[in-house]
Amino acid sequence: MQFDITNTESSALYKLLTGTVIPRPIGWISTIDANGINNLAPFSFFNVVSEDPPHVMFSTVRTGNKNKDTLNNILDNKQFVVNLVTEEVVEQMNTTSQSVASDIDEFELAGVTPINAVYIKPKRVKESLVHFECEMVHHYFIENHQNGGACIIIGKIITMHIDDSILMENHRINLDKYKPVARLAGSNYSKLGEIFSIKRQ
After folding, report:
1. PANTHER family per the record (predicted)?
2. Model pTM?
């Protein structure tokens, strides 16, 4: 079946896209507002986009033409932390996906521990095994939307924190100990399944 974008409702497009572009890594983004209130929310429209120098991207939807707190905070101070999600913290991550008032600290809501970053103000999630401290270098609001669209954030990684427990020789990551979680569609998530290798040509 062919789905012409202009004749397909946005709710259907969302289901088709999130059901086919899988699995997606989850960027658990922590920010801080002007009053020092922590914000923490997961985004699965997320990935690394460069290693020279290291950059990541994520996008946040603007349902009803309203910015999420994450976006407002980053536009205000241009700083955020990417905390990566593992099996051990997936329930806490899910707790932070709910919409709450901007004066609610999602670290407290989810029962996770805020720890200081080295170079920026937003806190890191202590229970996460990987943190990227980032500075926004670019943002772009998607045009011609019907319900608010989305904003893409590009962030430069200033420093990376990787737990010693998942590091192996030559900077490789021990996937058996890392246990990352990926986003599927609806309420579905996935763990790493069978891993196979193909040599590059």
Report:
1. FLAVIN REDUCTASE LIKE DOMAIN-CONTAINING PROTEIN, FLAVOPROTEIN OXYGENASE
2. 0.94
Cα 146 to chain centroid, rounded: 24
Q: Which pLDDT belongs to residue 148?
A: 84
Smallest CA-to-CA distance from 139 within 29, 39, 22, 60 is with: 60
- Residue 128, amino acid: S
pLDDT value of residue 66:
85
- The answer to whether the CB of 76 falls within 8 A of the CB of 33 is yes
Q: Using alpha carbons only, how large is the chain's radius of gyration in Å?
A: 17
SS3 of 90-154: the string is HHHHHHCCCCCCCCCCHHHHHCCCEECCCCCCCCEECCCCEEEEEEEEEEEECCCCCCCCEEEEE
Whether the predicted pLDDT of 175 surpasses 90: yes
Q: What is the pLDDT of residue 83?
A: 98
Give the model's pLDDT for residue 67.
87
Q: Which of 73, 57, 65 is nearest to 24 (CA)?
A: 57
Average pLDDT of the chain is: 95
| pLDDT classification of 144: cutoffs 50, 70, 90 | confident
- With a CB cutoff of 8 Å and minimum separation 6, the contacts of 181 are 26, 85, 86, 87, 90, 93, 189, 190, 191
- Strands 114-115, 182-183: parallel, antiparallel or unpaired by DSSP? unpaired
Distance CA 128, CA 144 (A): 37
